[in-house]
Amino acid sequence: MCTSGQIIGSLLVLSVLEIGLGVSSVAVGAVSFSLALREHTPQLGDSSPERR
Question: Which domain of life does this protein belong to (predicted)?
């Protein structure tokens, strides 16, 4: 049978892993969002009228 210390330790390990996965998911989302904006910006610039 597991002691309370082992249970708390395993919960802490799982919490750290879950936080790491959440941070990496946010980072991947931010990178893909910035790449999508970078690809979309020239299309907007090409179709907009020029101001002189």
Answer: Eukaryota
pTM of the predicted model, to two decimals?
A: 0.57
Supply the range of the domain harboring residue 28. Answer: 13-37
The tally of domains found in the chain comes to: 1
Cβ burial of 2 (10 Å; 0-12, 13-18, 19+) is exposed
Higher per-residue pLDDT: 2 or 9: 9
State the Cα torsion 39-42-44-49 to the nearest 10°.
180
